[in-house]
Structure formats: C-alpha cells, structure tokens
Fold each of these.
Amino acid sequence: MDGFGVAFEPLNIFLALAGVGIGTFVGMLPGIGPINAIAILIPVTFAAGIPPESALILLVGIYYGSQYGNSISTILLNVPGTASAVVTAIDGHAMTKAGRAGPALATAAVASFVGGTFSIFGLVLFAPVLAEWAIRFGPAEYFALMVFAFSALSSFASGSLVRALASTGFGLWLATVGLDPNSAIPRYTFGRIELLDGMDFVVVTIGLFAVSEVLQLLEDTSAGRSATALTGRVVISAKELASTGWTMVRGGIIGFIVGVLPGAGGTIASFLAYSTEERVAGADGRFGQGDIRGVAAPEAANNASVNGALIPLLTLGVPGSGTTAVLLGALLGLGITPGPLLLEEQPDLFWGLAASMYVGNAFLLLLNLPLVGFFVRALTVPRWILIPGVAALAFVAVYAVAGSSFDLVLMTLFGVVGYAMRKFSFPLAPVVLGLVLGPLMEKNLRRAMALSGGDWGVLFDSPIAITLWVLALASLAAPLLLARLAPRRDTAAPEPREEK
Amino acid sequence: MSQDRVIGGLLAAVGVTLALEATTFDVAFMTDPVGPKALPFLVAVMLVVGGAVAWIRPRGDVGLPSANVFLRMGSAVVAFLVYAAALPWLGFFLSTTLVVTALSLLYRGPLLPSSAAAALLSGGLWLLFVRLLSLPLPVGELWIR
C-alpha cells in the first residue's frame, strides 16, 4: 500500500510525532484543547508551505493525541479536559485515590491504542464504501445532509436545543458576511474592506474558544491544582491488562460507530461504552469504585470515535463536530475539497493519513508508557506562565492569517462573545460548524434550486434526500422524547467542559 | 427581569435587524432563483425563534463574576485591543512582551519573572516564525524611521 510510503517520509514521521506530542499536551492542559491547537497551527502550516497530506497528518495527530492527553489529567486530577473524558474520571480517579494511578494510566494508554488502531481498520474499510455510495449525492442531497449535521450537533449539544439552534444561526450568519459569491453584493460587511472576503474561521475559532477561555480562567484565581504525585511506575500486569481485552474491543467498536454519526462524538461514545461494560459485567463489576474496565471502555471508545468522525469529513465533506469543522476549514484552505472523489483524486492524502495514524498511535503508546511522568510535570507549570503563553500563540496565529491588526480586534470581540456564550450556556461548536458549512450549504441550495428552475420540491425529490430529512427531524425530536421517557440519572462525574 | 428575558429580547432584536438589513440585498440580475437573501432570512428566523423561546421559558439566572473579576477581564480585553493598535508601531517583540506581561500580572504572576518569561517567549516566537518559518511579523514602524 502506498499509504505507508507517504507516512514513512521523514517529514511526515516527524509531523505525526509532533502532532501527537502537541495533542497529548493540549489534551492534558486546561485552557487549550485540540480545537485551539489545530486552529493555531493552521496558519502556520499554510505559511510553512508543507504539502496538504503532511499538514493533515499533523493536524489530525493533534486531534487523536489529545484524547490520550485528556485521560492523564482526568485520571490524576479528576479534571477532564473535555466532556469525552468525564466517564473516565469516575473509575480512573478512584483508582488514583486507591494508589493505582500507574495501572490506570497504562490501561488508558493501551485502551486508546487498541480503540484507535481498531477504528483505523474501520476507516480504511468503510470510507471507500461510503464514498462509492455518496457519488450519487446531488446538491439537494448535500443540502439535506448538512441540515442533518446541524440538527444532530444541536440536539446532542449539552443543554438546551433552542440555544444550540441560536448558536447555529450565529455561525450561519457569520458565514454570510462578505461578498456573496453568486451575485457579488456585499452582505453585513459594516463598510469594512477587511470583511469583504468574509470572516476567517481561524480568527473566529481562536476568538471564541481560546480568548474566551483566557477570560474565563480569570474567574478562577486559584493557581491551578497541583498534580497528585505519581507513585510508582506506569506499569500493569499482563494478566490484568488481558482481562480488559474484550472491553477494549467492544469500546472501540461502539466508539467507531458513534463517531461516524454527526453530532454524537466522543462524549456519547464514552458514555455508551461505559454503560455497556457496566451491563456486561453485571454483579462482578466494581464500577464507580475503581474498576479497571471503567477506564478501558471509555478510553477505547473516545479514541475510536475520532477515526469514525473522519469518515463523513473525508468522504462527504460534511463534518459533524466543532473540531472536524475546523479540520474541514483547514482542508479547504489547503485547496483540498473533501468529498466522494477525494479517495480517487487524492489517494496519497487519504491512505497517507490512514497509514500515519497507525504510526501515530504506536508513537503515542511508546510516548505514554515511559514518558507519562514527564507529561505530568507539565501540569505543574503555573497558570500565570501557561495561559499568557497560549494567548501569545493565538495572537501570532491570528496575525498570520492576513497580516492585519484588524483580525486581532475581531478576535478580541469574538473572545468577549464566546465568554458570554459560555456563561449563558450557548454551545460554541455549532458556531464553527455553521461558519464552515454555511457557504457550502448555501451553494448547494442555490445550485439545487437553479437546476430545478425554482421548484422547492427538488429538495425532497430523491429517497436519499427524504431519508436525510427524516433523520434530521428525528434527531431534533429524539432529546425531547428521551427526556419524557427516561428520568434523568445523576452521575457522580465532575462538571464537564464543553465538547470540542 | 431575568437574564434569559434580556438574552431572548437581544437575540430577537438582532434577528430582526439582520432581516431588515437583508431586505436591502437587491440584485439587478438574479443569477439563481434563491438569491442572496434566503440564508440571512433563515438565520433571522433561527435567532428570533431562539430569542422567543428564551423569553417565554426563561431558565434560572447564572451567577455573574464579582466586580473584581470583571475589572480584570475588562483589563485583559483592553490589553488585547491596545496590543492590536500597538503592534504595527512598536513591533512584534516589544508589544508582545508587554501584553504577555500584563496578562501574567492579571493571573497574579510575580512582576519580574512574568516580564522575563514574556520577553523570552516573544523572542522565541520571533525566531521561530520569522527565522524558521519565514512568516513576516511586524518589526515596528517606530524603529524603521
């Protein structure tokens, strides 16, 4: 397979290693997160002029690497970096309190590896099938698919569906800013020349996520919690590890399937894998008190979900989450339009990425087992160094987009808006999805309508389109129905951060 | 009035404003049957509906940060804006050192280590971006003259 030829090029090996290393750090540290790290590095990869497949290897490496890093702070500090690690905290931190942090970390690393590796098989197996099928998609089907992506993300977003819809609306509005590509009239540019080209998604993303986080962390003036000293080495007996084998496989499969669905992502994958294991274990489970399977299942699942989420991104060109939306923005910026033809037209990109993910996952396992102590030391960096440092990186990245101070002002503005949105629990991910997908959605709608000569019926003309509309409606109705049917179950998990 | 009523009213007002603005997007020659107004109108509907629901079914208020925290956040925002204005004049190194120091102080860092760390970081970023990646950062007009 040619993919490994691409993956083993020295530059790509280096970038895979750099990606997963950066990912581990940002997944672990508060205040950065994969979405910020990816957004910050996008202008850098553009400027450095590296080939698209190499840029993607780096950026995707950050994405899955962050899932590993996430488990470190979750297990040691009980501070999940993102919502997808919340369930890991239950048993993972219980193990730490029982003096078994080493085995917990080792299990998390191996489970992530197993889940990650398994789901790359899934990616390689199913992406070509989906691509084959999606070739039949016309503009009407794409429009319906994007509506489905929005409704799924809104309904799975934590909190109120209506707030998520308002967030989506905000993102779609940002997408309309600038010259309308069809008629070339300016929309919502406030008379600024800088806005004629539209809102740059890097500026918006960094403002909404990174700058707002910098502001929000000012609320919490404690110097940051110090890490529980890691006692003992990160080892685990082969017997204990083997006992979690099937748990990891099941978690990986669940995570992969959930990951493919738009909107769901790592959080739902890890919850589902955890509750499945709880049921499988039955009476001999010690879930909630430090059961090792309570670490293995969600960690395998949330890593697998990352690879699942790449399938709709690469084969349909339609992301289902904030992070994959940022990746789509990066791809478009690199001149790559993902879609059903990507596998044929850019085989190096797809197979090279897949092969590099095997390499990256192996790197992560090698990095995490012996070097976890080194990563943990990074948790002790005081906040007054870490956060201003992140802010400086954000400034450079935003400035690099267009070499303009105006973007820094916009970034600050979005930082204030993002802070207010977090405060009043409006989810941020739909904004990024709306901004990146908005132009594609509008283009497909207009194309479909132009082809039909203005007949709106064209949107509901094919079985595929009708199915997608039904799915979109069902995903909106699902949370309302579930809330009626099932009484809310309280979990002993700490307050999650927003899924990125 | 509860917070959600204020938010709801604001969202609806923004939605209406956007819709009014969208009515001016007139094209002399329609290239497609949908035109440039459709998506803005959809956005306006989403915001107005979101605002109306927040108004009709308000949630409980969330706790706002103390005046002291607000002051520090405001200072951070002002620092960012001053940075944007100062960057072309003072250049990357000096303005970044200053803004990072200010931010460190807002995070209750000690003065000397904060400014030392800020200067090191700014210098490092300059080397990385300008020398290694040849990505231009402003030198500062003040020093060129």
Amino acid sequence: MKFSYNWIREMVPGLDVPPRELMRLITTKTAECEGLEEVGGALANASVARVMSVEPIGEGHNRKALVETRRFGTKTVVCGAPNCRAGMLTAYIASGVKTIDGVESDGMLASGRELGINSDHSGIVELTSEELVAADSVIEVDNKSLTHRPDLWGHHGMAREVGAITRRPLRDPVRLGLLPAAPGVIGVQIDDLALCPRYSALVFENVTVQLSPLWLQYRLEAIGLNTINNIVDVTNYVMAELAQPMHAFDADKLRGDTIFVRNAWPGEWITALNGEKYELAGSNLLITDSAGPIAIAGVIGGMDSSISEGTKRIVLESANFQAASVRKTSVALKLRTDASMRFEKSQDPLNTVRGLARAVELLQQVSPGIRLVGGVSDRKAEFKPPAPIEVTVDWLNRKLGRKVSAAEVRSIFESLEFGVRETASGRFSVTVPSWRATRDVSIKDDLLEEVGRMIGYESITPQAPLIASVVPPANPSRLYHRRVRAMTAAQGFTEVYNYSFVSEEMIAPFGFAPSGHIRVTNPIASDQTMLRTSLLPAIRKNILDNSRRLDAFRLFEIGREIHPRGEGLPEETPHLTAAMYERHGDGRAQLFELKRLAECLMRGCEVRPAAPRPFEHPERAAVVGWRGQEIGRLFEFHPSLGIEGRAAVLDLDLAVMERLDDQEIRYQPLRRLPTSAFDLSVVANVREPAGAIERRMADAAGSNLAEIEFVREYTGAPLPEGRKSVSYRLTVGAADHTLSSDEAAAIRNRVIEALQREGFELRI
Amino acid sequence: MSLDDQIQKLATEALAQIDQANGLEALEAVRVDVLGRKGSLAQVSKDFGKLATEERAASGKALNAAKQKLESALEARKQTFSNQALTERLCGEWIDLTLPAPRPRPGSLHPVTQIQNEIEDLFTSLGFAVLDGPEVETEYHNFDALNIPAHHPARDMQDTFWLEGGNLLRTHTSPVQVRGMERLGPPLRMIAPGRTFRNEEVDASHEHTFYQVEGMMVDRDVSVAHLIYFMKTLLSAIFKREVTVRLRPGYFPFVEPGFELDIRCLICGGPGCAVCKQSGWVELLPCGLVHPNVLLMSGIDPDQWGGFAFGLGLTRLAMMRYGIDDIRLLQGGDLRFLSQF
C-alpha cells in the first residue's frame, strides 16, 4: 500500500516531520515501510502559465509560443504539443535555454508525464485553475504488515496513526452533513446479511463524464492507481482515503429499480470491467439487477453497467461484505483487486455512509452540475457496539516489563480514538472504535500492543526472567541422529540435503508405484509432485550430478521418508542413506566400506544376502540386520540406473536402529584364565557365504568359544575350479578353569565333525 | 720392567686398540685379549705372587684401576657403535610425510546442520527442550491452533503446499509449539528446529524448502522485557558479539503483541550500507507474546500463564554465517560446495 505524504498532511495539519523520518516512525510504531519515492520532482521548477500567442516555425509540428508564467514572468518557448493554443492554462518548467528549429526556447511547456504527475504524454497539461500541484513523497508500506489493520488501507487511517505518533490532531475529511435526509430512490435487497452486513447507495443525475482534474489524477497516479474518468477516479479516491471500496454503475443501464445482493445461481456469468468473462459458482456473492449480475460483490464491477462517456445518471455503491466470502471468491476466481484486498481484511460497516458523504463532496467538484436524487438507500444488519475491554495499568506494566503511568495510557488510547473511562484508579474500560473492532482489537492483549508500540519498545529495558533451574527433557532421537551424522561424516561422507518432493520420472527407475506416494495438490514444479517414500531417487540424482565432475566420492543424507497411512498423518521415518561412488574399479571395496560404516553405527550388525530389488545389482544386495531385526539394506545400484561407474548404497532405518540401540551396556569381567587357539580351513563352493560357515563353526564350538576370527579366503591351485578355502581362528577358553588340551581338542573335533556332517571338506 | 710398568703399557696399548677398533667384533677381540680370563692382564696378575705384600697391594690396585679404565673405554666405544648402528637404521627409514593420508578424506556436515547443532546446544544450555514435529501437518496444527482460521487473510502470508487428503506441508515450525504445549504443559521452554515449506518459486534468495527454529517459553508473568533479554542474549551468542536489537510492531496471528526483531547491522554498525539497505537495521526474526487464544487452544489458562515465542530462520542464519549468496546451493547436492564446511 502506497501512502502520499501530502495526502496524510492534509489530515494532520501542521505535520512537520520530514518524509524519511516519518517513515522510520511508522516502521517502529505501526507498520513496516519498505520504500520512499519522490514524485512530481519537476514541479519544483514549474509554474502555472497562460499561453498568450502561438505562431508556426518552419514545416514541422513545432510552434513558437509566448507564455506568461506566474513565477518566472513572460517567456518564449518552442512547443510541439498538438493542444498548445492561445488562451490555455498549462504548466511551464524553467528547464534552461535551448535552440530548437532556429528559435531560442527559454524553458518548456510540460506534459503530465514530464511533470511527473500522471502518465499522459499526448500533449501539454490542461489546467483548470491557477493552482499547480506540489511535489510529493510516497511511502510504501509492506502489505503483510497491514493484514490485521482494515483501517490502514486508507490514508485517513494512516493519518490517525501519524497524528497519534506525532501528537497532532487529526482532521476528518468526511462531512456527513452533505448527505440529504431524504429516502433513497433505489431499492436494495440483501439475501444474507451475514455475507453483506451493509449496502448503502446514492443516485446522481446530470453527470458529466470527463477527465479528472490534474490534482485528482496526480493523487491516484502517485499511489499507483490508474486514472479512468472523473466518476471512477472519485470512487478510487474515496477508497484510497477512507479504505471504503466503492463502485459506480450507469443507472440507465440497470434493469429495474432494485439492487439485489445474493449468491450466484447455476450457470450465471459476468463480463467484468477487466474484459474477462467469469463463470460464477453458488459461493460467489453477486450484485444484480432484476435481469442478472452487475458486479461480483466486493471484487469487481461488470462491464455492461460501467461508466462511459455517455453516462448521465449513476448509482454509487458503498457496501460492506463479509471478509471470508470475498476472499473465497477472489481466490476461486484468481482475481485480486484493490477492493477485494480491502474487504478481506474485515472493513468497518459504519464506513459505508462516510464514503458516500465524501464522494458527494468530490463529485460536486469534478462533475459540475451533478445533482443528488433522493437520499441514501441503506440496508444493514444490526450492529452491536463491541463490549468495552477492561484493562489495568498494573497488568500492562507486568506484560511490558516497564512502568507506564495511567495518564500515559489514557493519552495513547485517546490519540488513537479509543473510548477511555477510568473506572477505578489504574483500571480502564476501553471502547474500541468501529474501524478497529471488526477483527483487530477484541481483547486486552490487543490493547497491550497499542500501548507498547506507542510508548516505543525501545523504551523497555531487557530483563532476565526469574525461572526455576531445571534440566530440560531430553530428545534421544535428535541426539541419536546427531551421533549418526558425526560418525558418518567421520567416515568420509559429506552430508547433502535433498527435497522432500519426487516426481514420477524420478521414481520410475526404482519401480516405486506412484500410488504409494502422497500427492501435492498444488505442486510448484512438475518434478515435485509427490512426497518421497525413499531417499534413494534423490541420492541417485546426487550421484549422477556429482559424477560429472568427480571420479570418486562419498555422500549421505539423513531425512524423512513419508509413507501414507490411511487416516490421519502419514508415517515419517528417518533414514540414513549413504552412498559411495567410483568411476573405476570393481565396486568391492565400496560395499565393504559401507559395511564398516554400518558396523560403526550399529555394533554387531550382520549382513545377509537378500533377494535383490529391481534397482539393485542382482549379486550385490544384502539385508543389514541386528539380532534378527532388519535395519536396512546394503547394495550396489543396478547398471540400469544409468550411473557410469559404480555406486554402492547403505540405506538404514534410523527409527528401528534407535530403538534397538537403546540397550544398557553391562560390563563383562575380564578373562583371567589363559585361552588357546586353533585354525580351521574349510573348503566350500565359491558362493557359499563365509558368514554362514562362521556361524556353523561358532554354533558347534559352543559356549567355550571366546572368539572366532576370519583369517583368509583362498581360491586357486590346488583347489579345483569353483571351490574356495576359508580359514578361521577359533580361540577357546572357559570362564572358571583353564581348558585342558583334551578339552580344547574336543571342541576342535566337534567343529570339524559338525562341518563334515554338512558336507564341507576341511583342510586339516 | 716392573709389574706396574707392564700394566701401564698393556693398558695404554689396549686403549689404543679400543680406539682403533672398527666394529663390535674387533672390540670383543680386544676385550678377550686384554681382559679375558687368559688375557694379557690376567697373565700379568700371575706374577703377583712374586711380589712383596706391600707391592702386591699396590700393583693389585693398579691392575684394578687399569681394568676399570679399559672396561669403561670398551663400554663407551660399544655405545658409540650401537648409536651409529641406530642412526644408520633410522636413516633408512625416511618417510615423506607430505604425501597425502590414505582415503577417506574427512566428510563434512551440511552448513545448516552445523548451525542447527550450535543453536540446539545454546538453547539446551538455557534449559530449553528440543522438540520435533511432523513435516506433514494437519491444517489444525499449522493454522487453526495458531489463531489463523480458514479464510483468514494471514494465510496469504504463507503460501502453502496442500496434500491430497487435506493435510499440508508445515509452513513454519510453529505447530510444534502447539504440540509442545499439549505434551509438556506449563511451565515450559522449548525450541523446535526443522524443515519447513512454502509454495514459492525458487531463485537465488527464495526456496520452497528451508529450515527454521521455533522457540517458546511459557511461565508466570512473562513480559516483553524478558523476551528482549532472551533475544539479545541468544543473538549475541549466535553472532559471537554484543548485538543491539530493536522491536517494532509485526503482525503474526499467534502472538499479541507481535514484533519484528531487527538487529543493528553487523556490517556497517548503524550508519547504513548495502546489506541493511541504508537503514542501519537488519530484520532478523518475528516474535511476540503468545496469543491467549493459542494458549487456550492448547489447554493453558492465559490468566495464569503467559509466554513468548519466536521464529529464527536457520537457513538465513547459515547464509549469513558463511556468506552464502545463493540459497539454491543448500539443497543442490553439489559436493564442491558442501565439502567446504
């Protein structure tokens, strides 16, 4: 929202705070100012001028004009504007002497654009009075910071703030006395007063539709509103001043003599002022005449009943619509207008007639001869004034953490035009003005803000709270994830963050069914349509991207898989996905590095061969488990994933791991008695998993096995093709006595026999 | 030649031999020749019997002195040889330590992780619990329970990713406030760091996925003065220097009053520069006193309890800390970038 400094000053007479300082004050006390723009800069060197005579020079369109200026005396200028003619009143800029077409031109006559007051450059400005407008400063306020303040969508509301901040009185531009007491001549019928709490209208005749005077154009253009014609410009001016959106209908184009406010019927449509045709739904509130829609309530007017050059009579609408209804319609039609933005902030229903009164005054200025027909047609719900809010100075002091006097509190409320009554010493009964009561201020905490911002938060001294010293409740998951992160990084993996979104294209190579994913109903991009149920698709992308630049790398992500789960919220499962990539090499070492990472993270975890998933290397896929519980998978990506080189992946479910990891550690007494060791080499098929052989040995050795350790694996002569030898060292010892050589030998024999029974050959 | 003279002569000769010995073997030979059981000194001592008692005593003394002298000379010489041998061995063991260490090179944690850990530790030290909440939230927890009912224009402030079934991706970590109050009850101090989502086009300074930490304290008589104290303390710890803060009105439906907290520009210190857009202040975080409706909806009596809440952008903080000028790098997965942290 843009605010004109001059406009505000009209309502805060004597305001002497310069614009930049005012901007700082508004920012610290009311709403965030984003920028300051100087407009009409050329006006500093401009003067009203009357063209005395015009004579041609040469063949071109340039002519020589003699002008009498108010500030600079009589000047001769060269002017190319088609509308330059003797007797007209226009603007002169003392821009210096320049020779044009052989004629010395001392300064220039200016267009609206050259003066910086509107965008017109079709000719020099046509002035109607001896007054030229003044340069202005436009303060832009962040709309987000006005979300809760319906009153600040107009200059008068901002002027009230400025008055309160600078302790100056506020001038009200509205003269309600201009409204005749006569009954209205147009009927108004409202279906649902909840959707339209108030509809006020006036009818005018003998209307002249023409361009607005310069000052009006300048005001609107300066704050970014387009100028259309005098009638429409007045409605916009009132909106920009009082935050009351208005609309003017051509009364002769309305059918019937009643305006209806109702929801759209099936199949209704309207061509709006912007030229677009809108199909209307039952939830859209409409303004209609007896034949059909003439406006979308609170959003936009219709084309058919709009003001045109030939308009002679108008109906001026100044209504109040329910915020939610306007917002729903505006969102559904994807149509945000200056009106809808204001209505959705919950405008003050008492403001409609104020808007009409202001419009009467302005229309009389810009449309000479205009006449009111009858008085205000006004249909409205019953408005109950809000109950006063009780607040004590003591409570305010405690909440602010500083002392404020009762006198200060009273003066702040009064400067903002709240009603204040001190019911007991230090206790106030505060009445909220209607323009703040629609949603903004309803409880004492809201009043706290009024006091706080006006005394200035910088006046509050920071103060340490007195609070009980307690150890905060722990968050074991977070600490666990932190440990996993630190360990993984220590093993050489670099952490990446990927989006929670995936696309069908991303999951297709993995064979994941799109139906197993939660869809985003309003995705921002076509590749971010669903929520990830696995970190793998993005990890694959990381590998593809980085492999263009690097020959080898390690990376990991800790993030949440999001799985749909019937009703309620989905299941969010934290995963660690670590990957190693090498362009060259057989990929063996990578898998073992990842296996080591798994062992570092979960001591005693086991890796067992598993049926490969479609995206896993068929011979390099395993389940990672811990005491029989699956905690994740270790595998190499299948070549079909398009990775040049090899990438191995460890994908672990951190939720399961954290649960399993939560084991109390109990210390085992150190062994005092000596142990003895022996080696066994087992010949087996090359594809017999060594882990299985090891387990068989350990099982057969029984409870006196202290340790079993892999020694080596061997293939080649003298072993036949397809066979391998795997050697283990078994260390045995009992807890309560030293094993005799016979006992140790018995264990060894037991192991050998057990393996032989299962068909293994032993190299003893 | 007297016995004494013989001893002297043998000793002198032996010392010369010790000096000239070129290795441990030669040294051993000298020892056997002179000090051995059948060595030259032993031979000399055989003649002691011929001497008078007094002379015998004197010669014995001389013999012992010579033996000691030779033994220590032998020992010293031996030490020299072993030192030489050690030096020689060590010389052959030269290693070029400028060669790189074997792989893997150390990995690194994401810059946001690092900032987040730091902030968590800081708040934990001040007695705040660290809480988690789901990334997929209900409309109730993300909006309604935070005093943002349906069709409230404040919903525009946070462009939302909606999911089929009516849930949404949380637009802020504030819903964890609600979950925290529901779970822990008052008094409480908590923060909730995490991933948040806004339906925004991505460019160098906008991301649809970013990180926030929400903080809240609920206790008896919590004031604006307390809020300012906490913010100042925390921000000074985060930026590792004294910071000046200012509060100004800001609108967030779940706090009342609501503030925007600015810090005095750390680049120019106040006079104005490009970073602070010439204002001398940098907008850092929204905060405020918890709205009584929010307390009520979480089952806390606002007449008995009050609180403050704030939201800090972790992504933004990481960018400030490391001078990152393109937000897209953070989720880009480019190891050339990530391995710098």
